[in-house]
Write a structure and sequence with these properties.
This protein is about 0% helix and about 50% strand. The protein is mainly beta. A hairpin with a 5-residue loop joins strand 14 and strand 15.
Length: about 260
């Protein structure tokens, strides 16, 4: 049984006749038929079927003139949606940094007797299905910075469902740059030694550039591009022997690695 309600009509004639309401209804496979007449502004629609979509309208009449309302719709279910008892994290607005993770969990039950079991779960990360368990472990990737939505839909066997949605902000985490060196290990005095430093930065898409330095002032560094450079040194007679140089690569955010 469904109670259909509407706003009252006013007879603008001087005689102010009483308004009578005729209510018509149909489902998707039938024609409109009268389900009742009343002078109230509500009526009961009975003998409804589960899963059916119903259309209804009201005809208001003062005995002489009449007017129809627009058409309204509703869908009937004889089942209750699953009830979510608890969910984790309890806050729906979250903030994480890239590389970190958090566990999402939902506990639900079905209120129908007998219950419409088993319950099924569908976890969404933005527009992608990522899990069908009652839990979802999310680890923020290093390309996930931005605003996202994580949601879970709990469904029973009749198609009834309940949803929970979290708003997730993933903040960028700067990663260390890296580089390798190409050089000749043995040179003679007065020969020009060239160290080629070839770098990479996984955050280059965010504008990171690599700056190189060395712990010896005799070495000259010449920048090639945003990730690579050349270092040169011309040893003299006093430099005969074994030398060790420590090169460092640093990005714009202060992350640094040395070799």
């Amino acid at each position: 049984t469904v109670t259909l309600k509407w706003e009252s009509s006013i007879d603008i004639d001087p005689t102010k006749q009483q308004i009578t309401y005729n209510v018509y209804q149909k489902n998707e496979s039938t024609n409109f038929s009268l389900i009742g007449t009343t002078t109230l502004t509500e009526i009961l629609a009975q003998n409804l079927a589960h899963g059916n979509k119903y259309f209804w309208y009201v005809n208001a009449s003062d005995g002489i003139d009449s007017v129809n309302s627009g058409t309204f719709t509703y869908t009937v279910s004889l089942h209750n949606p699953p009830k979510i008892i608890s969910f984790t994290p309890p806050k729906i607005n979250l903030s994480l940094v890239e590389g970190s993770s958090t566990l999402f969990n939902v506990v639900a039950e079905d209120l129908d007797t007998p219950p419409d079991l088993p319950l099924s779960y569908e976890w969404m990360f933005d527009e992608d299905i990522v899990s069908t368990d009652d839990t979802f472990q999310y680890k923020a990737g290093f390309n996930d910075s931005g605003i996202h939505k994580i949601s879970v839909s709990v469904n029973d066997t009749t198609g009834m469902k309940t949803e929970v949605e979290w708003n997730l902000t993933v903040n960028n985490t700067n990663r260390n740059p890296d580089f390798y060196m190409v050089f000749v290990e043995d040179i003679n005095e007065d020969e020009n030694a060239v160290f080629e430093l070839v770098g990479s930065d996984e955050d280059a898409q965010f504008g990171d550039k690599i700056t190189y330095s060395v712990n010896d002032s005799r070495v000259t560094i010449s920048r090639i591009n945003d990730t690579s450079t050349n270092a040169t040194w011309t040893p003299i007679n006093d430099d005969v022997g074994i030398h060790q140089f420590n090169f460092s690569a640093r990005d714009d955010q202060g992350a640094e690695i040395s070799k």
